[in-house]
Design goal:
mainly alpha, elongated
């Protein structure tokens, strides 16, 4: 996979994940009180995944094209 293709797909994935998280946050008020703790825990996990993915993308964007071929 070329570097530009990877960046584009990763950005698309991040955008989808961001939208998914936002939808879940909007629905948080609609769920039963006893389920909210687990719901918010899952939201926190998704946000951590999103943040890790964004950090990795930033890291990969700095890689030169010659090093990218190795990856």
């Amino acid at each position: 996979m070329k570097k530009d293709d990877f960046k584009q797909k990763t950005h698309e994935l991040l955008d989808e994940l961001k939208e998914f998280i936002e939808n879940l946050e909007q629905k948080a008020d609609e769920i039963a009180d006893d389920a909210k703790e687990g719901y918010y825990k899952q939201l926190k996990n998704l946000k951590e995944i999103r943040d890790n993915l964004a950090a990795k993308l930033d890291e990969y964007e700095g890689i030169t094209d010659t090093k990218w071929d190795v990856i």
